[in-house]
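Support reply, case 0932

Customer input (verbatim):
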Amino acid sequence: TRHLILLFGMAMFTIQMKNAIITYISDPKVESVTYPSVNDLLAPDIHICPLNQENLTSFEEDGYANKKGFLLGINTYYTNLTWGGADNRTFAQTATVLFQANLTGNKVHGNSCQYVTKFLLPYGFCSHVVNCSFDPENGRMRMKLMTEAKIIVSDPRAALYHRFPGEAMRGQPLVIDGLGRKFFYTISAEQFIMDASCTDYGADGKSKSLAECAEAWYWNIFHKLIGCMPPWLSNTNTCTGFVKYPENKKEYVEVVGEILYNSRSSTPDQALASCLKPCKKTLFSSMLSSTENLANLDRNMVNLYFESPVRVHQNVRSYGEFQLVVEIGSALGLWLGWSMISIYDVLIDALKIRMCQ
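Our regenerated output:
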């Protein structure tokens, strides 16, 4: 009977050890939610994009049917592709003629703020505000806008060279229309930290950023079609001067058309689908709180209030090395407990030997 009990204890020990090892290898996860301060997050990207930039008369005079025709480089004055307009200018010079954006006077309050002008779909020219922070006490960021504009608050890790990411913002769009008004918006942030099907872009990776990864994907496509990158899509390997029409014009038009459509609908395109997502992603949501009228009718004032704390979602291991060691200790304790029964046999044997002597 005692032998059967010992065998049963051995079986229980083996099963417990097996289950512990299988659970550890399966790497189970549970969602952990923390609430750090908004000041602990990576500073968001702020873009100010004036509305209604397209000058339709200039498009026609420069030989382009519309914005899509300009992005394609199809000009009625030439038999080759060109983004230089009727006078064979540079892309930047032509874009300035076709897209008339009033960026002068737009200002985010803060001495450290810097402004970089970028051409971004689907708007045209936008001011990228960098090195700007909100008030750490109340989370407020104040802006003065001299034109109607859309403001986009997004995660810099998800930035692309030519357009805004698919999930740039949620909630009510930050559309500042009319003049002579003061807008109050509440901005909430929610961060997701992933541990699978993602990558930490940086100097040590194959791509330094998601934008660089997407650019490499586009290069593989356009290099085959026209031998260079459309100048609005990238700053490297860009097309200059005149470019020969692609042999497969239909595919070329479809690719550019899809990029333009996706930029309007905020839909991730094939380039993003081919790239791993950053392991950290912050989504911003906006809500209009109130508006007021201003005495000055030539400007708008915008107040963005970033809520704190923020919700951070992260999957953490529910069964790691510590839990495995505890389980092994428990199994060993069980086995030693069952083994105590064998002490009775040792005592009996010792007594028998003593009596024989």
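We compared this against your earlier run and they match. Two observations from our side: Residues 2-26 form the longest helix (25 residues). The longest strand covers residues 280-293. Please reopen the case if you see a mismatch on your end.
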